[in-house]
Amino acid sequence: MSQTSDRPWIFRTYAGHSTAADSNRLYRRNLTKGQTGLSIAFDLPTQTGYDSDHPLSRGEVGKVGVPISHLGDMRTLFESIPLVEMNTSMTINATAPWLMALYIAVADEQGAQREKLQGTTQNDIIKEYLSRGTYVFPPAASMRLTRDLIVFTTREIPKWNPMNVCSYHLQEAGATPVQELSFALATAIAVLDNVRDAEKIDLNNFKEIVGRISFFVNAGMRFVTELCKMRAFTELWDEITRTRYRIEEEKYRRFRYGVQVNSLGLTEQQAENNVYRILIEMLAVVLSKNARARAVQLPAWNEALGLPRPFDQQWSLRIQQIMAYETDLLEYEDLFDGSYEINKKVEDLKNKARQELLTIEKLGGAIAAVESGYMKSKLVESNTERLEAIERGEQIVVGVNRYIESEPSPLTTGDQSIMIVPDHVEADQISNLVAWRNARDSKLVEKALSELKIAACEGRNIMEPSIAAAKVGVTTGEWGRVLREAFGEYRAPTGIAAEARQIGGDLDEIRAEVERVSQKLGRRLKFLVGKPGLDGHSNGAEQIAVRARDAGMDVVYEGIRLTPSEIVSAAKSENVHCVGLSILSGSHISLVRQVAAQMRAEGLGHIPLVVGGIIPPEDKAILLAEGISAVYTPRDFELNSIMHDLVKIVDHSHDLET
């Protein structure tokens, strides 16, 4: 037993929805329940630098997080929450300097001393190119913005973590433990090398920057391996900071991390089982004292069904509190020191991660490995292998491919089993935004935007001009527009191989059907996979594209964040036989209707349209009633069955035409 008990980690829930006022009420309620830190979820327009009334924002406002269009929204978000007393985590990346500028502006209004502010901006753009998809600018410009925020906060807000190197989303995209270790550490190396080389910082100041870099990790169901992964992370980071950056003091080499456990493995089928999955996954990041998380946020059990309710978030918070306060876990030193099996696995992970880091280094580092498509293609391959193992029954998922018989669950019935963002939220947010624009001093806004653009083009640190812009009423979309003009935009590699994999087995029957229908059509069956709107979570779309190509179809997949008109234009120019849309942000009704209407307007109404996403049963019924050929949700995990459906849908559509 330890002479002094370890202190509990920070308890968080990842939250934000509808409006700043609604989210503020949720935060204050959660704080009264014992939550000890905030974790802010922003909506997709905010994350990608658009105002709520931009055409690309249609249907996305307030869906996956809170919309923050200007200082007034940020002020409302933290009303009656003293920022100087709070530890705030903001999941924001491409627009991280802007959201941090708004946060600082509110803190200044509250009279908080900047040097006392505590919290974290995720600010990890590299993983956005690989998994989450909320990047905006090309890699070089994005790395410059990351550097600007790091340098500014280290100087002005020394208790702030300016970057959370985020391996969480890598695992969500299918990363193996070795890939999660190596890709995250390669990202940290790329960022620190960039800061060191561009800013010409002396070692004494540079160690402060190294010491403020934190990590945000994932933990899956194989919790022994995941625990070993965390111990490997701590030892590899100590090794890298000591040998590569010559950091001598242990406190600057410490691996500091927060965690959200795996959401990828949460199931729509028998969703109540997810409570146990979440608890087991948490064990990996709290059991080992030497690799214990300093902040934990747990997903809600019903996230595979839709947006969780306050009760669902409370349930996840209580799991943490029971672990920290009712058990004796925090009274002991590390339980695994000296374990032969643990040490053996840790060394194996470290050695394999070092090998992968060397491969990335030879490619020119993490940025080069992004631009070449190497890292993305590796994630797509790993996720394909994971899904195929589930389909074959080699990887057992209780309630999905084993023990599927079940009693009806009282937890998932009724009209209020998930939270639904009201339809009026978007219109109200736009109305408030228009009023904000009309009430501000337009000359001050123009001056601030001009100074922001000059700073961007001249290579000066973007933070002070951004704070000044925030204080005179500049909007998120205006900040994003100026930087798009300065830096341009970027489309990352999709990671989808050009050629089909030559694998047999279960695909042989589907390939025969594709050949039969293709002969009927007079050419190869062609399938377009589209990602409309601002949702950048592309894992599902990628796997559908890979499987369709392996099944013998011609596949058109151009990546994320396409407008409905771009998708329809591609469908027309490519002369496709079927269009599939992947939408995970909750904006499926609006976006599907836009695509369907434009297809009809372009004379493509005869082409079948199918949809996949986190779609509640009532919305599925609406889409099917409106003529959508098929709707798929996370429960439809057998991709070969989906391929069979697509072939039948195209075959039936052709018969109707002829």
Largest sheet: 5 strands, parallel
Helix content: 40-55%
Gross morphology is globular
The radius of gyration is 25 Å
Task: Say how many strands there are.
Answer: 15
Give the strand content.
Answer: 5-15%
The total of helices stands at 26
Topology-level CATH name of the largest domain: TIM Barrel
Spatially, the strands of the biggest sheet line up as 1-10-9-8-7
Q: Could you say what the CATH architecture of the largest domain is?
A: Alpha-Beta Barrel
What is the total number of structural domains? 2
Report the average pLDDT across residues. 94
Distance between the termini: 78 Å
Relevant CATH superfamily of the largest domain = Methylmalonyl-CoA mutase
Question: Uncertain runs with pLDDT below 50, 5 residues or more?
Answer: none
CATH class placement of the largest domain: Alpha Beta
Secondary structure category: alpha/beta
Structure description:
It is a single chain. By secondary structure, the chain is of the alpha/beta class. It has 2 domains: 10-326 and 334-412, Alpha-Beta Barrel (TIM Barrel); 507-657, 3-Layer(aba) Sandwich (Rossmann fold). Helix content is 52%, strand content 9%. The protein has 26 helices and 15 strands. The strands form 3 sheets. It has a 5-stranded parallel beta sheet. It has a 5-stranded parallel beta sheet with strand order 2-3-4-5-6, covered by helices on one side. The radius of gyration is 25 Å and the shape is globular.
